[in-house]
Every structure is written in structure tokens, then in C-alpha cells.
Fold this protein.
Amino acid sequence: MIMYTTPQIGPEEPCPYLPEKTSNMQFFFADEIDAHELEFFLSRGWRKFGYYYFRPACRKCTSCISVRIPVDTFSLSKNQARVLGRNPDVTVKFSNDNPLQEEMFTLFREHSRFRFQRDISIEEYESNFCDRSCPSLISKYYLGNKLSALGYLDISSDSLSSVYFVYTEEFICRSPGIFSILKEIEYAKQIGLKYYYLGYLVEGNSRMQYKGKFYPYERRNEPDGEWSLVTKHS
């Protein structure tokens, strides 16, 4: 591992998840993080884009909760089974492809435009999703010969970690977010990993609540950092 900076606390800023609150991030920049080192950081609540590693360090709030799914005990809900049943014609491929391909960038830019009404530059895309500071994978979702969705994933010694997911506007009717999580959990189990990291479940943010519907899952408790199991009946 190459540490470009030591972990530090950033300035207080408006919270991107809870508009009435402010947030602080602990962060560092690093490269050549191996699979075991990556698992160390994931298990302690860290996330990353490119060389930028971060986790919440808010003084008065613990609403951002790290969530991971033990893949061997995961059980489909009726709704999740229906999502799989609606997508038998979708082909999913996992690869080590370089994400800096025109087809991938075009899809990413389309997603940014219709979901967030913003353009992303090739430089921003490259620094966040193409500069690989740790072991990573791409999941590709095809309808026929058309690339319709992409998952950006990191792979540690024990886990698959979802970094970001994008899709075309016409793919929305397929419940792409749920479908991708199910296929990536399936792949993590297939290759012998223990966990699938979903990122942060933010209490109070309705758009993040879907992350708490894949049972059973584990949540990282703050401030002690212990993981606890959550079942449907908890």
C-alpha cells in the first residue's frame, strides 16, 4: 500500500443525504492497496472513489450506517424473486475490463444526465472510476447486444463491494438497482466470498432505504465499530 496522505478530518460541509444537517468526512489518498488491506478498510466503514478513501466522521450524527450482506445466508424476498423473474433476458458479465472505454463512458454520462441533470467530464469519470487503487471488477448488463447497465465493484480478500451503479433510462422498468444487487450477491457467493458491501444505509433518507431490504444483513455500529446481524424480525 502506498499512502499519499495520512487520514484527516475534512471541513464541515452541507450533508448530501440529510439537507438539514452538516457532515464531516475522514479521508486519505492511497494506491496499490491489496485485497487484504482493502478488507481491513471496508470492515471499518471506509468507502472509496479512485485514490480517495473516506468515511463519515460527523460530530453529532451517526445516521450513515455501513451495511454488508453475508452471501451464504442471504434469502430472497418475494419482491426480489419477482425482479429476477422479470429479467430472464438480461445477460450479466463480470470482467476486469478497463472502464475507460467509450461505450462505458457514454452510458455513465447518459445516467448522470437523466438521473441528476448534470454532465460529467471525462477527467472526472477517469479519476473516480478508472484509476484503480485496489483490486476491482466491472459488472456489465446486456439486453441483447446493447450494454444497458454497469456496476463498478471492488474485490477484497473476503468481499465484493459495490462502488457505483449506472443504467440507461430505458432500463428503469427492470428495477435495475435491485436486480444488480441480487446478481452481484450471487457472483460473490459463486467465487467464494463472504460478504457483499452495499455502502451506507442513511437513516432518514428515503432513497437509501432499499439497502435495508436484503435480509439478513449486518450493520456496523458506531462508535464501537462492531457488526451486528439484522433479520426481518429484528
